[in-house]
Amino acid sequence: MDELPVAATWSRMQTFLLVYDTGSARAAAQALHVTPPAVSAAVGALEDALGAPLLERVGRTLRPTDAGRTFAGYARTMLGMLGEAAASVREAETGRLRLGVVATVSEYVLPRLLAGFVQRFPQVDLSVSVLPRDELFARAAEHQVDVVVAGRPPAGSPLRTRARRDNQLVVVSAPGVEAATGRWLLTGQGSGTRQAALALVAGLESEPPTLTLGTQGAVLAAARAGLGLALAHEAAVGADLRTGSLVRVPWSGVPLLRPWHLCTAASPTPTTELFLDHATDSERVGEDTFHPRVPLQG
Q1: What is the per-residue pLDDT across 52-106, written as a single tens digit (0 to 9) for each?
Q2: Contact 149, 260 (CB under 8 A)
Q3: Going by C-beta distance under 8 Å and a sequence separation of 6 or more, which residues neighbour residue 5?
Q4: How far is Cα 115 from Cα 270, in angstroms, rounded to an integer?
Q5: DSSP assignment of 36-67, as one string?
Q6: pTM for the whole thing?
Q7: What is the Rg, in whole angstroms, of the alpha carbon atoms belonging to the chain?
Q8: Is there a contact between 193 and 231 (Cβ–Cβ < 8 Å)?
Q9: Which of 100, 182, 223, 247 is least surrounded by Cβ atoms within 10 Å, i.e. has the fewest?
Q10: pLDDT one-digit tens code per residue, 190-230
Q11: From CA 128, how far away is CA 30, in angstroms rounded?
């Protein structure tokens, strides 16, 4: 076990995580531009130092053992923190910024906000991950993203809400859809909007049919086609309501107030602070502004 600090190099942990995620030494080797035996040797060195197998072969796939799943969480966190440390010592204007956002934010909230930031700070190394809310907060807890823009953080999350932006959910459908018996169109598993929609229909006398379509955009396309009712972010349906392709459906308890939360770790990197300053600067971003109206402990 004393050999673990030496064996657990950055490259070996990265190699192990690639095999963990792809289920294939060959796929990991292709991504790393090395040979499959080199990948196997890297994972083997970790297993020898840990004294436990991390992967097992099931058919043609390499699957993690219980020890492998445990070690993967630590490895992601260690690599994330190391990368975060490296980013923290760089100048803010030339640093790295990893944004994690839910699909609706990527479609209706982020573009204009990000355009202004990129124009001001073109040398920032920027990336955006679009994932379900729960997965985003899990990645942030492992230091895999710097900023999460989504609904309210889950209980126990180490992230802090730094600013919020007003948002509400409304029920919509194409004209003529029967509200009482219509099908409910749902976003994917892990979506806060999905959870809110299911809570709305939970008290009905009869359970309505549902259809899961993934993203908010897919749900709204189906709603326009007359496939059913949808709980949607008001900003996403403004144009449809004006043209009449969608109409508001009166529903008890709706609209639902669901502000967007801009969340970071307790000690953000300088580049993350730069983005926070930009997102909360009303003179620069206007109606796209996030407002720091909540305590920093979230």
Answers
A1: 899 998 888 899 999 999 988 888 888 877 777 776 766 788 888 999 998 889 9
A2: yes
A3: none
A4: 19
A5: HHHHHHHHHHHHHHHTS--EEEETTEEEE-HH
A6: 0.70
A7: 23
A8: yes
A9: 247
A10: 777 888 899 988 877 788 899 999 888 899 999 999 999 99
A11: 24
